[in-house]
Amino acid sequence: MARAPAPLFLRPASYRRRRRRDAARLLPFVGAFLFLLPILWSPQETARRDTGPDGIYLFVTWALLILLAYFLSRALAAPGEGDDPEAEGGAAEDEG
C-alpha cells in the first residue's frame, strides 16, 4: 500500500523555528552594518570633533544586539508548542 504524500507546507511551529534560525544567522551581518553606519553620517572632507552621539549610538546598538541575541537563543533553545517531532527526523528517514 502506498504511503500518504508528505504535506506541502511546514507546520506553523516548525516554520517559526526555521525563521528564528535564519534571524540568528543574519544577526552578525545586521550588527556589522549598524556598527559601520556612523561612518556614512558625515561627509569625508569634514572633520568632526563631536564623537559623543556616535559613541552613544554604538553603545545602544551593541546593547540592543545583545538583547536580541539573548531572546533569539532563548526562543531557539526552548521546545516549541506543537513542534512536530518527526519534522526533523522525517526528512532523514525518507532519504535513507
Structure report:
This protein is mostly helical. The protein has a domain at 12-38 and 51-77. 65% of the residues lie in helices and 0% in strands. The radius of gyration is 22 Å and the shape is elongated. Residues 90-96 have low confidence and may be disordered.
Strands, helices and their partners?
Elements: H1 12-36, H2 52-77, H3 85-95
Helix pairs in contact: 1-2
Q: What is the gist of this entry?
A:
This protein has 96 residues and is mostly helical. It is built from 3 helices and no strands.
Q: Label the structural class.
A: mainly alpha
Q: How would a crystallographer describe the biggest sheet?
A: none
Q: Which whole number gives the mean pLDDT?
A: 77
Q: What is the molecular shape?
A: elongated
What percentage of residues falls in helices of 4 or more residues? 55-70%
Query: Uncertain runs with pLDDT below 50, 5 residues or more?
Result: 90-96
Q: What is the H-and-E element order?
A: HHH
Give the N-terminus to C-terminus distance in angstroms: 19 Å
Q: What's the alpha carbon Rg, rounded to whole Å?
A: 22 Å
The count of strands amounts to 0
